[in-house]
Write a structure and sequence with these properties.
The structure holds 2 protein chains of 2 kinds.
Chain A (H helix, E strand, L loop, with lengths): L20 H16 L3 E4 L7 E3 L7 H20 L3 H26 L8 E4 L1 H21 L3 H20 L7 H44 L1 H16 L2 H18 L1 H5 L7 H25 L3 H9 L4 H31 L12 H9 L3 H31 L3
Antiparallel strand pairs in A: 1-2, 1-3
Helix pairs in contact in A: 1-2, 1-4, 2-3, 3-4, 5-14, 6-7, 6-10, 6-12, 6-14, 7-10, 8-10, 10-12, 11-12, 12-14, 13-14
Chain B lengths: L1 E10 L2 E11 L4 E6 L5 H8 L7 E6 L2 E2 L5 H6 L1 E5 L10 H5 L1 H5 L4 H14 L4 H4 L9 H13 L5 E5 L7 H18 L2 E6 L2 H7 L2 E6 L2 E6 L1 H6 L4 H7 L4 H7 L3 H4 L9 E3 L4 H11 L3 E5 L5 E6 H7 L4
Parallel strand pairs in B: 3-8, 3-9, 6-7, 7-8, 11-12
Antiparallel strand pairs in B: 1-2, 1-4, 4-5, 9-10, 12-13
Classes of the chains: A mainly alpha, B alpha/beta.
Chain lengths: 397, 311
């Protein structure tokens, strides 16, 4: 409905303008990165200072020139091609080429049998990936994919990435070296991270939704309640995690049974509680906003036809507010996936464990081992919930 | 029969509806006109308890409505509003079936009733039942809104500026439909509008409200010929009241016996339209046709003009 974009950027105008300035800028950034910025950093150990290497001295000369030429070609086509499919294809090929090049470079630059040396992607490599990913996203957004197509695209990308990891393409990259060392705990912490993020959302929806409904129904309590929830949002996450340790610790000390159930000053309990509190405001306020957008005429008609207050809420107001409420849930989901990182600081586990270990050891690769999955997790959840929102918004338009 | 007895609504010191009494005969159309802020909508909304009266009461067929729980009362009273208030997430059939579903009708009966109403409102059930409101034109949405209000066969239908958002041509059609349907079901209709023409066209009785008070409640012709208040004559229009009066009288009512020689008009044409037609034709008299299409009476310009004066 309101999400439909008319004309120029809509799917109706699938043949793009003559050339795309945004893509041109991104392409230029990519080409500059190839020319002047290090493609990989070589370190003799995980904490040594890196030796930057450009693309041309990272691969065998013939391959390096071929890779550079291919990347320039892809950037040019993505900028100037009239056909959106060609743009998308070139952007995807660009990402694949960069991934192949960095994987091969790491394999080639690692001395045989050396398990201490670390080859990590350089700033140029990251910029190239970013540029092509943005061009791809730009093209994808113009296709105006259906929700199912978006989920399929996400699954396809995940499948390709999984294949790349499974074939060992990146095994010589520093992040994967860290993964090899931490493989057993990685799976455990990833599960813990999801548990923290999702486990805090579910109760937040169960509590935040009724709070939102009450705030919308009873205006006098609206301002005070939303202000209070807003106040929680302004507490820095580390502080909130810390604050909660005190009462939960005292509780566990007073009732040892609770402590045995996991409700302690440190660990998952304060982390879950903090994430739950952070999630309340977006859920409650998007419920208030969603209910507020239901047409006054529909509400008047519902009352006038004899729906009770409960029937009106369940049958008319909540279904019509659902897209807005889900938008709030999407916000908190992405927010909590990021915030759950902090849980590691108070013994709550999660992928933050690697981030803070890495910071402690000044091992940036270990930081990335935690950070990259967090970003990908957040992105995937945003796409999935975005698709769900479109489904509920379109099905009953 | 709806009896409204000194109904009053006060918000703090502000009196929105001031001791209004009126009675509406079963099976008739009562229209309340007034400017915005006159209290006409509040009056209407007190009938189905969307607004609770400060004082006074409403009796429907002798029963005080205050004795029935509000939501149950409303399920017995049809309610159609401006901008139709259709539920955007429900299909046309689901919208129309709202009150029958609340009343616990079985699915077959609801389906049959929805199909019947769609037929009456000239919307092919097979095509329209499954559509969503946003897929309909404004006129179609409005028809579905009225069909929804009539779904549970209510004896009373309340309408709050139901045609206010329609363009003049569609509005005229909607008014014709309403007259036909009201005759067919014998529904008692209470409508509020700010459109004087609409009130005169539809109302068996028309009430004029101003500043919360019901100034006059009478047959349309009486409002024109015998206004009780300066505001009433201002609202009904001084300049064209003679023409308004003519528009209330049908050719059959005014026809004199004997076949005339002038151009033919049908029995239900209003005198205003006959006069206009004669002016256009340059004729002095018209032949009124009976139901079977044979000449049944004669109308002269002088005879029409005599009808345009208070008697």
């Amino acid at each position: 409905m309101s999400l439909e974009v008319p004309g120029a950027i809509g799917g109706a105008a699938r043949s793009a303008q003559r050339w795309d300035r945004f893509n041109a800028l991104l392409g230029a950034v990519g080409i500059a990165a190839i020319a002047w910025l290090p493609f990989v950093d070589c370190k003799t150990s995980r904490i040594a200072t890196g030796q930057p290497r450009s693309l041309f001295v990272s691969l065998a000369p013939g391959w390096a020139v071929a890779a550079a030429a291919a990347l320039v070609l892809f950037a040019a086509v993505a900028t100037f091609a009239a056909n959106l499919r060609a743009r998308l294809l070139c952007a995807v090929l660009g990402v694949v080429t960069v991934a192949l090049a960095v994987g091969c470079a790491a394999a080639g630059l690692t001395p045989a049998g050396n398990r201490i040396a670390r080859i990590s992607p350089g700033i140029g490599c990251w910029l190239l990936l970013l540029a092509f990913a943005l061009i791809a996203a730009n093209a994808l957004s113009r296709f105006r994919l259906t929700p199912a197509q978006r989920v399929l695209a996400l699954l396809a990308a995940a499948g390709v990435a999984y294949m790349a990891f499974a074939t060992g393409l990146f095994d010589h990259l520093s992040v994967m070296r860290e993964y090899a060392v931490n493989a057993p705990s990685f799976a455990r912490e990833a599960r813990r991270h999801l548990l923290l993020a999702l486990g805090s959302i579910a109760p937040a929806v169960l509590v935040g939704l009724p709070i939102g409904v009450l705030c919308q129904r009873i205006p006098p309590i609206r301002a005070a309640t939303l202000q209070a929830l807003n106040l929680i949002q302004t507490i820095p996450s580390i502080a909130l995690f810390g604050i909660l340790m005190v009462p939960l610790g005292a509780l566990a000390a007073a009732h040892p049974l609770l402590g045995e159930l996991g409700i302690r000053g440190i660990g998952a309990a304060p982390a879950l509680l903090a994430l739950f509190l952070y999630a309340l405001l977006p859920v409650a306020s998007s419920t208030v906003a969603g209910l507020g957008r239901v047409s006054a005429a529909a509400i008047d008609a519902a009352r006038g036809m004899g729906l009770t207050n409960g029937q009106r809420l369940r049958q008319i107001e909540l279904p019509l507010a659902l897209p807005y409420i889900l938008t709030g849930v999407r916000v908190v989901l992405v927010q909590n996936i990021g915030l759950a990182t902090i849980a590691a600081l108070i013994g709550g586990g999660g992928l933050g464990t690697f981030v803070f270990q890495g910071i402690g050891q000044t091992a940036i690769d270990l930081v990335l081992l935690g950070a990259i999955p967090i970003v990908l997790l957040g992105f995937s959840c945003a796409v999935l919930l975005g698709a769900l929102i479109d489904v509920v918004q379109r099905m009953p338009p | 029969m709806i009896e409204i007895e000194s109904l009053t609504k006060q918000y703090g010191p502000t009196v929105v509806v001031d001791a209004v009494s009126m009675s509406i005969v079963r099976g008739s159309i009562a229209v309340v006109v007034g400017t915005s802020g006159s209290g006409k909508s509040t009056l209407l909304r007190m009938i189905n308890q969307l607004v609770l009266p400060t004082r006074g009461r409403v009796l429907i067929d002798g029963r005080d409505t205050a004795t029935t729980p509000s939501h149950l009362l409303r399920r017995q009273i049809g309610y159609a509003i401006q901008g139709n208030g259709l539920f955007p997430h429900r299909t046309v059939a689901e919208n129309i079936g709202t009150v029958p579903a609340l009343l616990g009708w079985d699915a077959e009966r609801i389906k049959a009733r929805v199909a019947e109403l769609l037929q009456i409102f000239q919307l092919e059930p097979a095509e329209y039942a499954g559509k969503f409101p946003h897929q309909l034109s404004g006129g179609q949405q409005q028809r579905v809104g009225v069909a929804r209000a009539l779904a549970a066969e209510p004896a009373v239908l309340l309408m709050d500026e139901p045609f206010g958002a329609l363009d003049p041509i569609i509005r005229a059609k909607a008014q014709e439909d309403l007259i036909a349907i009201q005759k067919r079901f014998g529904t008692t209709v209470v409508m509020v509008t700010h459109d004087m023409d609409e009130a005169f066209r539809l109302g068996h009785r028309v009430g004029v409200m101003h500043a919360g008070r019901l100034l006059q409640y009478d047959r349309p012709a009486a409002l024109l010929t015998n206004p009780k208040d300066a505001f009433v004559s201002r609202l009904t229009g001084i300049a064209d009241r003679s023409l308004r009066l003519l528009s209330l009288i049908s050719a059959a009512e005014a026809a004199e016996p004997g076949a005339g020689s002038g151009p033919a008009v049908t029995a239900d044409t209003s005198l205003r339209d006959v006069l206009s037609y004669l002016l256009w034709q340059g004729a002095r008299s018209a032949t009124v046709l009976g139901a079977d299409g044979s000449p049944a009476g004669n109308l002269t310009v002088d005879g029409i003009l005599a009808r345009g004066r208070p008697r």
